[in-house]
Every structure is written in structure tokens, then in C-alpha cells.
Amino acid sequence: MDLEAAKQELEEFIPHVRSIAECSIRKMAGKDLARFKQFKEQGIAVRFGKFSQKENDQIRKNIEEFLSITGIDSAEKLLFTSRYPEEQKNINYLKAKHHFCDKLSEGIPRPWRLVYYRAKKIFDPNNYKGRYTKAEKEELKKYHALHGNDWKKISEMMSRSSLSVAMKYSQIKSAVNYGRWSKEEIRKLMHAVEEVIRKRVGMEDANSRSSSEKSGTDHLIDQETLYQKLPWTEIETKVGTRHWRQCKQKWMIILTNKMTKGQPSYRGTKAIQAKISLIKRLHEMQVEDYSEVKWEELTDIIGNVPAGYIQSKFYRLKVTSVPFWQKKTFSEIIDYLYEKKLPELEEML
């Protein structure tokens, strides 16, 4: 089937199909079109939006049956195969042999990729507990008033992860500023980051050397320590007037400026070339999900910058270049950038 014919047939089921990248359309023609036609014969329309309980149950059933057929021992291994590098080759072989794409989407009138993303959300043990209800939000406020930032204790009381309750409390509390940062806020941010890094380095140092060895010795801090896995909710509390995401973004700007010695690393021709390289490298990775991207391996595109800086530039590129990006999967966004935006950027050089 040629591309135009695929667009015409898919348009019946996905009205916005012409805004999707061509390679994504070809994938949908191969994985979804026949399914969509079968659903049409049954009088069932293709669905978008929030998944129903029935659809969630069907996804769980499909996953359980596929695990039974293949002998793969957990949904996490099936859906997050990259977390298990020793078994990755065999799992991918079993997924291809037993037609994982078809089995996962069986009985669900949605594009395969949307079903795949939903399955990952359901079965990821690291992050999924569903949305917070109004009652849970009130409980969280009450527990925080009693226990402060003891997120471990609060998480046990709410049957949520420590990260989840910390992030949710950060979102619902008041007194957050927006707009330009004041000098006092920047000072507090830098002091807070320095404090948590010194604490971390001190703990690592204590575990690796005796006090006599430490005496009189200056710390040499790895570059990654300055931005990887910092406790942003703790930093937010120390700053007091900003959301943790604002703190993280501002720190990345400050850190990048220091690492590049104030030299412009993302302007003019350099910025265009960096965008081109970023799009090409992401397309070469052929990953299905944002979480599978190893951003630290892409920092050389711009230079001596933290991985978070690259992520922020990708976000800006996505928002400004991809129409209806909120409705697209990660791989569809990359396909669109590669097919539509990349030629435009190359012409600008």
C-alpha cells in the first residue's frame, strides 16, 4: 500500500492522521489498519482519550496470556526489557516470535502504540499507583503537617512511593512564585544545592575512607554529582518560594553557564547544528519511550553540559515544532521531527 492510500484509509479512523509523520503512518498501516477494519465490521469505533476499566482489564489479560505463552516471568521484563540487559536478546526474540504487538492490542480498539504506553504505565512498579483522589490529597496535607518531610513514613501510611508523595505535595502546596528569579531566590537555590551535594559527598567519603584519611583533604566532585539524582523536593523546601521543577530548571541554567564558562553554546549556527544532531541521534536510537533515552550519552551534541540541559532543549524543540505533540507518542514525535523539521533545519545551514 502506498503512503497516500494508507493516509486515506487511516483517515476514516484517525481524522488527524495527516499531521502524523510519514514513517509513523506506515507503521500504523502495518500494525493497526487491519485491526481497525475488523472493529468497524463489529460496529466498534476506534477510541482515544482516557482508558476504560474494561480496556485496562483487557490489557492485563493480554499481558498475562503472553507471559504464559512465552515463559517470560514478569510484565516488567516484557515491557521494560532494557532494564534486563542479560536477558534482553532472548526476550526480544520471544516477543517477535509470538507477535507481541498483535497480542497486546487484542480486543482494544485503539492504536497499538497507545495500548503499549498504557500497558507500561499499568505495569511499571516504579511509578504507577493511579491518580490521587481529593481525599488522598487532603490526607497528604494532614500527614505532612504531622510528619513534615518524612516522605518514607508518609509513603507507608498512604501506600504510595516516597517519590510520589513528595512530588504530589510539591504540586498541591501554595506560595509558589513565577516569573523572573530574584537575587535572593538564586542565592537560596545555590546554597540549597551546595548543602545537599556536600552532604552526599560527605556520606560517600565516610563510607570509603577513614576520618584520618579525610582530614585536611579537599573534595573533588564528579561533574555528574552536580545534577544527577538531586533531592529536588528537599531543595524546593530550602528555597521556599519555588516549585521543585522550577528549581531544577534554574539550576540547570546556572550549571550550564558555569560549565561552558559563559560562552554561548546554543545560539546561531551552533544551535541549528545541535538540533540537527539531536534529531538524528534520537531517530537512530529507535526507542519507543522517553524513559528509554540515555540523555547523558547525548551531551556531546552541545558540549560540556548536563544531561538535563539536553532534555530541556529537546522539550523546547518538540513544543515549538510538532503540532498536537500532546496527542503523539514519543516515537511519533521523533518521526515527525526527522521527516518534517530536519529538512528545514538543514536548509538553514
UniProtKB/TrEMBL annotation:
Task: Offer an example of a GO molecular function term for this protein.
Answer: chromatin binding
Q: Name one GO cellular component term.
A: nucleolus
Q: Which domain of life is it from?
A: Eukaryota
InterPro entries, per this entry?
Homeodomain-like_sf, SANT/Myb, TTF1-like
Q: Which SUPFAM superfamilies match?
A: Homeodomain-like (SSF46689)
- Alphabetically, which GO biological process terms does the record hold? termination of RNA polymerase I transcription
Q: Which residues form the Myb-like domain?
A: 124-172, 173-255
Q: What is this protein called?
A: TTF1 factor
Question: One Pfam family for this entry, by name?
Answer: Myb_DNA-bind_6
Q: Where would one find coiled-coil regions in this protein?
A: none
